[in-house]
Amino acid sequence: MPCVCFYFEVHQPFRLNRFSVFHIGEEIDPFETYFNHKLNREIFERAAKKCYLPATQLFLDISDEFGKDFKVSFSLTGTFMEHCDAFAPQVLDNFKELFRRGNADLIGETYYHSLCSLFDDLSEFRDQVNLHIKTLMERFGCRPKVFRNTEAIFDNRIAKEVEKMGFRGIITEGTEKILGWRSPNYLYRAKDTNLKVLLRNYRLSDDIAFRFSARDWVGFPLTADKFASWIASCEGQVVNIFMDFETFGEHQWPETGIFEFLRHLPAEILRFENNRFVTVSEVVDMFEPVGEIDVPFAISWADTERDVSTWLGNDMQIACFNELKEVGRKLKEKGDERLLKIWRLLQTSDHLYYLSTKGFADGDVHKYFNPYSTPYEGFINYMNILQDLKQRL
Amino acid sequence: MKIAMIGWEYPPFKVGGLGTHCYYLTRSLAKLGVKIDFFAPKVSRGERKSDLENLRIIDVGETAIYPYGTETKTIDGDFFTAVEKFNKLCYEKVNGKYELIHCHDWLTAQAGIMLKEKLGIPLVLTIHSTEYDRSANLNPNPWFIDIERNAMEKADRIIAVSHYTKRIIVERYGIDENKIRVVHNGVNPIGEHGEKKKIVLYLGRLTMQKGVEFFLRAAKKVLEKEDCSFVVAGSGDMLPQLIHLSIALGIADKVMFTGPLTEDEVKHIYRISSVYVLPSVSEPFGITALEAISAGTPVIISKSSGVAEALRNCLTADFWDVNEMANKIVALLRYDALRKTLKENAKKELRFLTWDRAARKTLEVYREVVS
Q: Any idea what the CATH number is for the domain that residue A246 is in?
């Protein structure tokens, strides 16, 4: 009869403006010109209205009813928090209130939700993680104990670095690629570290995130009591249910009944004796690892491949990633704070995600937010901007 | 199943997608077991023989007829007399036991209508282009529109080469969408060979419909940023005008007008080009885009085209948006990774755009009316 740990990723990128080759090298303000502030506002306000506000409010209501018996964890990216400041401060206030009441725990990550953990030199990674910790300290007074890299990208090298930075736990995907026959419902130790690894139970997580409204799925319709009974029947220490926060109201529309499901879930889960909600920090305090995981090549929780091919799967993505690294090298020599910030905003993994040419089946979730009609359009735009930034150095 | 198909062009004698379509469609249909008698105007040059048992090519008429011989749209010219004569002769010559008549565009529509009545069998009409396309929406000629509408109304099923064309048929001609089926064209792959040069290619007829003017205006912009050559391959009534435009834009030294090309020259130019642009004002399909891809050349296609809906691995632009067209040409010339990814994925996509698939879908339409 395990504990259940709900964790939600909350992220918005700074989407780009249309930037033609004819704009490269023109006299412009890069921050104002590269980023589509109008589109970012529209998307954020829509997401706030459909997801962030109703979902956080629902959690506050549940908190009124269940007090500290109800707990969840969040990772709020730096770019998300900046969007909150600019477009909907109430959203962040709701998160703060959940944290203040002890219903929410916070998770560390790269401030820019970037792929800098895959750079050869990890100094940029450390900078971005420290920036995120600093922001959480300032805004919430919270120093995160558990780390979740961008889209759960994980390998032995990243684990070592994260341990060095003082984290006690790390989140990644509970894929058979690293587990083999073993269960994701236990803690493991990352190879050659004392870092505890929390593994996403992708079946149960995706039952909500992807399959909730799928009429051709045998589990349809998914009700709170049904889901709670599935969790109760799990063996292990902790069932980790991790997903995008936008599942509520954005990926799964309100009409699907997702909010009603969420509203009734805590009561149904707590109905089972010994079932309890735990945060990620509690998990690393409560349990000891039962084994080791060894991940020489990076995994993630994305797509069916569960690797980094979602962002670095084709030549266009690799060309842009190399260009990002190249710009970084030049930028660090120059030391221009304003351009450094822009470079980091351009590192957000979404920009590379949009260039993925993998099949529609995998691309569906992000298609909703993808501002480009094709990955090729995305590449031209992103690459033109990188070229412009490079020329400024 | 035995059918009579009335065509206008048939390789090696062709000027556009219609001839290519009929050639590959009839051959693939014949392989599917459909017996086809294909009626086409007799031509003085080039021999047209079928090597397939199920397919017979039957010449109609005695005089040479040159399709699209004039773009002047005068109704009393030789061309229109020839069309009328051909349709009448078809009406007289097509006899016997057929299960349906299949005709193509306004050129053969009248024979189709008359034969439907004479033989009492269903009529299938394929629309490869409408008067609205050919006129680039500038002063479409009501005489053609009437012929087209009449045939569309009489046909038991209409095959549109794209949803783009289907929309025109429904919206402009007021035809019931329930009798329209969309069958995308296929391509007979050209194959890659030799080395690519920094050439940006347009290939097709030089008419208002094709938007070549926008191609030249984009070329002017591209040349501000990149050194490359532009090739305009094909012939048509706008050739003098386009040459003048290239001079006026000051890019005459970078633009080559080839005139009409032989089949081998067409293959060669596709193969050595780095970018193919289809800038049409209104393009029912656009087989050339698929041909370019099959020769390893990435394409930029007009959003006002049928092929834009059939292909995912391509770049698109509005035909009038020369800045965007130029942006994408420069990007393709500059960014190797873009060219490579686009080329590889587009070639994979061609596996779904074959004539065998088009024939199977056409046969499904036949079965709907013959039952």
A: 3.20.110.20
User: Do residue B340 and residue B218 come from a single domain?
Assistant: yes
**Residues of A with Cβ-Cβ distance to B326 under 8 angstroms:** 21-22
Q: What is the pLDDT of residue A2?
A: 78
Q: Does B166 share its domain with B264? A: no
Q: Provide, as residue numbers in chain A, all residues whose Cβ is less than 8 Å from the Cβ of B301.
A: none
Q: Reply yes or no on whether the pLDDT at A365 is more than 50.
A: no
A357 contacts in chain B (CB < 8 Å): 313, 341, 345
Please tell me which residue of chain A has the smallest CA distance to B342: A376
Residue A300 lies inside a defined structural domain of this protein: no
Residue A323 structural domain? 309-391
| Average pLDDT of the segment spanning A143-161 | 97
Residue B191 lies in a domain: no
For A79-91, the pLDDT digits (tens) are 999 999 999 999 9
Contact criterion met (CB < 8 Å) for B323 and A22:
yes
Nearest to A264 by CA among A42, A61, A3, A16: A61
In this structure, are A276 and A320 located in the same domain? Answer: no
Q: What is the pLDDT of residue B14?
A: 66
* CATH code: domain of residue B123: 3.40.50.2000
Q: Which residue of A has its CA nearest to B226?
A: A21
- B-chain residue closest to A375, CA distance: B313
Q: Which amino acid, one-letter code, is at B65?
A: I
Helix (H) or strand (E) run with residue B217 in it:
helix B212-225
What predicted TM-score, i.e. pTM, was given to this entire model?
A: 0.91
B195 CB within 8 Å of a chain A CB: no
**A239 and A338 housed in the same domain:** no
B330 touches chain A (CB under 8 A): yes
Say whether both B252 and B111 belong to one domain: no
What is the number of structural domains in chain B?
2
Residues in B touching A22 (Cβ below 8 Å):
221, 225, 323, 326-327
Q: Do B341 and A357 touch (CB under 8 A)?
A: yes
* Structural domain harbouring B274: 199-352
Q: Examine the domain organization and report whether B303 and B167 are in the same domain.
A: no
Q: What is the mean pLDDT of each run of 10 residues along chain B (371 residues)?
A: 92 75 95 95 75 92 55 56 88 93 95 96 97 92 95 98 98 97 96 96 95 98 97 95 98 97 94 98 96 98 97 96 98 98 93 96 97 75
Give yes or no: residues B151 and B242 share one domain.
Answer: no
